[in-house]
Structure formats: structure tokens, C-alpha cells
């Protein structure tokens, strides 16, 4: 429901901001943007992994939790594996719990 919320409060449907947005929705939002950037569309060619990460980190694709951006920077070389595991966890409804554990241990 909340993966279209923005960390700066400019999203929808509820106008949540910052930590009001469930961490699972923040992660899905970041994954969705990355996927959109690296995928071909009718209106654009896919960006390379390197360019997509650069665009996200530069703030060209929306506002994200600074800690998630830090994590993205750290794992960018393992990104495909990370998103596969993450999506599996979310589909198994343990994604938020798993990420919550990782998030607290940082």
C-alpha cells in the first residue's frame, strides 16, 4: 500500500513521511525504482546498473531513507542477489521482520 510514499512526504496514498513509512514499503519503493531504471520500456532504454545506482544515490529518482541509500551504496556489487532474496522474503511475508533485524544491527 505505501510503496508510493516518499521519504520527504511527497508521495501517496497517505502522505506519510520519513519513519512513518513502513521499512518494507521503503525497500519495495527503492527496488521498484531500480527495476524501472534497469528495464527497457517503450519510452526509454534500460540504464546500466552503474548508472541506475548513480541516479538513485544522486537523488534523481525520488527521496529515499538515507540509511537505505547507504546500504545501497555498500551492496551495489551484489545488488541482483540482494533483490532476489528480498523479494522472496517479502513474498514469504518475512521481509519486514528480516530487514528490521538487519536495520537494528547497523
Please provide a written account of the structure.
α1 packs across α2. This protein has five helices and no strands. It is mainly alpha-helical and 106 residues long.
Strand content: under 5%
Oligomer: single chain
Count, helices: 5
- The secondary-structure class comes to mainly alpha
Q: Compute the CA-based radius of gyration.
A: 13 Å
**Coarse morphology:** globular
- What about the largest sheet? none
Provide a short characterization of the protein structure.
Helices cover about 55% and strands about 0% of the residues. The protein has about 110 residues and is mostly helical. The model has no long low-confidence stretch (mean pLDDT about 80).
Set out the fold topology.
Elements: H1 23-38, H2 49-57, H3 66-75, H4 79-91, H5 95-104
Keywords for this entry:
about 110 residues, mainly alpha, 5 helices, about 55% helix, about 0% strand, globular
